[in-house]
Structure formats: C-alpha cells, structure tokens
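User: Design a sequence. Structure:
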C-alpha cells in the first residue's frame, strides 16, 4: 500500500475523533461493540468523543486491537467491514449464482465488443450490470484470460484485474473513474463509476459547494451522476445503519495528477 493510501485510510478512520463530545451512553455502546457483535459487527465512530485527546484515543484503540502498524490496522478494518474483493471472489472464478448485479436481459445492448468471439467463445463471459443511472451502466465480465473486468458505461474505457484478490488493496470502496468522459452530457452530468463491499449500502458524492448526491440500495457497484462544475471532492460509503464505512478522495482517481480535475479538461 502506498503512503498516500495509508494516510487516507488513517485520516478516514480517525476523522470523527476531532469533533466528538462523548456521553456515558455513547461510551457504553462503543465498549459493547468493541467486545464484538458476531459476524454482523461493524466498525463505528460514534459522535461525542471530543473530550478525549486524539492521540490518547488512537493509542487506546491500537492497544485494544493489538495493532501497531498501518498495514495491520488496515487488515483489521477490512475484516470488520469487508472488501470489494469479497464481492467478486466467486464471480471471478465463474460462479454466477450469487454474483453481484444482474445478468443482461435478452435484447439488452452492452458494449459492442461484448459480441466479439475469442477461439469460438464469447469474448466477454458472464456479462452483468452492476449499477446504472442516467442511461449509464457499469458492466462486469470475465475476459478470455479469466481476468475480472469492468466496462465504464460504454464510454470507451474499461479496466481488468487478474483476479478478485487484486481488489483487496482497495478496501470497501473503490472509485473506478468517469470513463473517457471529459465534458458534461446534455444534462450537465459526468458519470462516476465505482465498486463497493457488501457492507456498503449507500454512497454519497460530496462537493466543494452545495448539497451532496446520495444513492441508496448499493449492491456491489454504483454510478453517480456528478456535476463537475460543483467540484466533486470525495465519495463516502455508509452501511445499512447509516454509519460511515469508508471514504475515497477523488484526487487520485485514474492515477492522474490532479485526479478528478485531470479528466475535466476545458
């Protein structure tokens, strides 16, 4: 994991510590959750801990968990909230029974290259739609090599991974990007595609100005209709109870300097 990713993780994990002011009830709930709530437990950062110094709270959490390094801490968080990799593990090996999203229905158009053949077999195997909005669809498929691949709304951009295990480094939220879209469509939107762990049920796109865009019923993937003129800043994932799971800055999407702004050329 690179330094930027590690720093982003730690900032997200301890973000709420700076603004918390605890009550006795909140402390009790936190302790109860720390003792474990079975397989359905989640990592929560409750409001109201402001009276505790950030360094002391961070040290206490690390000591309780027996974690003394960022990679180990990351692993513990992943174990609690799950990762994108787990969503696609079976699917990447050809198991479609519990695959995320839905299969393409007869007559439904996918990217043109989905109809190509490779050694007599379909190039894009087990084609699925993970999410859609505003006419844009996030597609998943398995390439002839067996790699797990995604098509970003038939915008001319896709990405592939040798296996679902490669997705583990992205945690519970992974912003794929806006495809090849460099300008707003007629509605003033640019689609933003991403993947989400099972623990993420809602995602929110936050801007430099104005209210955020929030979508619910997320299941493995999402398509956000971003308004580039409002300067999108980050995508935040929430669990079924409305607790923050993870956040992803848009400064680094696509591996380009400037992130989101690098795509939006005048």
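Assistant: Done.
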């Amino acid at each position: 994991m690179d330094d930027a990713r590690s720093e982003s993780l730690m900032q997200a994990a301890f973000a709420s510590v700076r603004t918390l002011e605890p009550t006795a009830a909140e402390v009790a709930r936190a302790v109860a959750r720390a003792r474990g709530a079975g397989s359905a437990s989640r990592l929560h950062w409750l409001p109201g801990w402001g009276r505790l110094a950030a360094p002391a709270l961070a040290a206490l959490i690390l000591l309780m968990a027996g974690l003394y390094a960022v990679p180990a801490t990351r692993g513990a968080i992943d174990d609690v909230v799950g990762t994108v990799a787990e969503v696609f593990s079976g699917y990447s090996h050809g198991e479609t029974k519990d695959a995320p999203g839905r299969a393409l229905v007869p007559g439904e158009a996918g990217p043109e290259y989905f109809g190509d053949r490779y050694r007599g077999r379909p190039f894009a195997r087990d084609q699925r739609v993970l999410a859609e909005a505003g006419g844009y669809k996030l597609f998943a498929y398995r390439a002839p090599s067996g790699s797990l691949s995604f098509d970003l709304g038939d915008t001319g951009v896709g990405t592939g991974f040798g296996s679902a295990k490669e997705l583990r480094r992205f945690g519970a939220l992974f912003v794929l990007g806006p495809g090849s879209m460099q300008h707003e469509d007629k509605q003033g939107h640019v689609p933003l595609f991403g993947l989400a762990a099972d623990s993420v049920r809602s995602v929110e796109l936050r801007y430099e100005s104005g209210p955020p865009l929030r979508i619910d019923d997320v299941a493995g993937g999402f398509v956000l209709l971003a308004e580039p003129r409002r300067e999108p800043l980050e995508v935040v994932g929430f669990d079924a109870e409305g607790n923050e799971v993870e956040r992803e800055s848009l400064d680094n999407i696509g591996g380009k300097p400037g992130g989101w702004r690098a795509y939006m050329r005048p």
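The chain has a mean pLDDT of 74. Residues 3-81 form one domain.
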